[in-house]
Amino acid sequence: MKFERIFCFGDSITLGSNDSRGLGWPGRLCRGLTSGGYSVAAYNLGINGDTSVHIAARWRGEAEARSRNSPGLLVFAFGFNDAAEADGKGPQVPLAESIANARDLLTAARAVSAVLWIGPTPLDESVNPMQTAVASWKMYNAEIARYDTAYAGLAAELGVSYLPLFADFDSSSRYRAALAAGDGVHPGDDGYAMIAERIAAWDEWRAPM
Fold first, then answer.
1. pTM (2 decimals)?
2. Distance between CA atoms of 11 and 8, rounded to whole angstroms?
3. Which residues, 6+ apart, have CB-to-CB distance to 130 below 8 Å?
4. CA 188, CA 23: separation in Å to the nearest integer?
5. Which of 33, 9, 32 has the alpha carbon at shortest distance from 208?
6. 101 and 56 in contact (C-beta within 8 Å)?
7. Strands (E), the chain
8. Mind listing the pLDDT tens digit for each residue in 65-100?
9. Fewer CB under 10 Å: which end of the chain, C or N?
10. Pairing relation of β-strands 136-138 and 130-131?
């Protein structure tokens, strides 16, 4: 790994909600990585409920606070919460706004360091509506797929490396079992292992190694 630091920005899927080991996919992906004989510092900067709006507002300050003047690999994963509907009001972040946020965020991030973008994952729609103290949520795989497709197009336009997970995971019996072991939105441990495995096998992840 040529980077001494890796910053993983995302939502609760990045954070690792329901992961009994508290690692999420970043912890599984980054453990044991070294740079110049030293352990790579990998930061899980996932926050429950974050959208592209939140991540665009915070990534720079959080990365700079941890960089010690040494640029790190910037990994972004968002979209699930953008597409989620609260109290019947439509997506939290409409697709056009989400794309605009992503364009600004990724353009700025690329000026700082190398960037990787991880696509959103599917859910078990039987959880709908999900009641929380904040809102009544409805989340649809068709909407997540729409955001995923648009993100892939933007990534190609910008020349940013994008790893789509949605289609393969949506048809995966293993990931469905992981969702059943979790809460239908966040997978159990094996779901996070699947995400880490997929990223670890990705040529674009291996390139900075």
1. 0.96
2. 10
3. 136, 137, 138, 139, 185
4. 11
5. 33
6. yes
7. 5-10, 34-35, 38-39, 41-46, 73-77, 85-86, 115-118, 130-131, 136-138, 161-163
8. 999 877 899 999 999 999 999 999 999 999 999 999
9. C
10. antiparallel
